Amino acid sequence: HFIRLFENKIKECNFISIQGLDNFQCKDLILGCQHFIDNLLLKYNIKNVQIFEHDYNYYKILHPHIKYTTIDTLEKGKPLLIAMPFPGHLSVHNNFKDILKKCDELEIDVHIDASWLPASFGINYNIENKCIKSIAMSLSKAFCMGWNRIGVRWSKLQNDNDSISIMNKFNMINKISYQIGCMYLENYSLDHLVSLYKKDYDAACKFLKLRPSNIIHAMFSIDKNLLYGVKQLLETKHN
Fold this sequence. Notes:
By secondary structure, the chain is α/β, with parallel strands linked by helices. It has helices at 2-11, 33-44, 58-62, 96-106, 163-169, 175-187, 192-208, 231-238; strands at 16-19, 26-30, 80-83, 110-113, 123-126, 132-138, 151-155, 211-212, 218-220, 227-229. It starts with a helix and ends with a helix.
């Protein structure tokens, strides 16, 4: 029920669109996108996963001497884990189409952390590339529900030996978490925060002389060298 609600709400979003999700027929509950990420790192080891610079800072904390990949250094046989939207760009990665094209050519499996997507706007997102093997989204950023981490992993292939599959098979996901998730999805649109705060967000950008991003939670400095979280600002202004 939770997964069906989530998928319906994605289709009803007014600020983003996603093409190709129907190609992912294996669906599992996850304890937020962190669960999705940690499952991949458990499966492959962070040293065997390709990651671009300016992605989720968690990777640098886990592996202080991490060697980031680039389009030119992408290696066949090593999976790529990439966020969408991309944290360093607060939007689609600037070279996202070229990255996917090269991953298709090199037969590199791509796994997409779409944790920020439900809190985004102005993004038309196509995940039909053959190289994309899994994608995950949660309600944490959509509803500021970091206290109740629940989401969905969509995969093209079933793997009965990975930890997420095992947890779902044996009903090890906290039922309260997805019941709360259902309650939110039944009462709010997935892009509720964007609908609620977008006008205030645009006004704040103009007043503070900051550059808008494609994520309702953050703005850029004019030179794009600094990122500013605006959650408290928007809540205070709206209230």
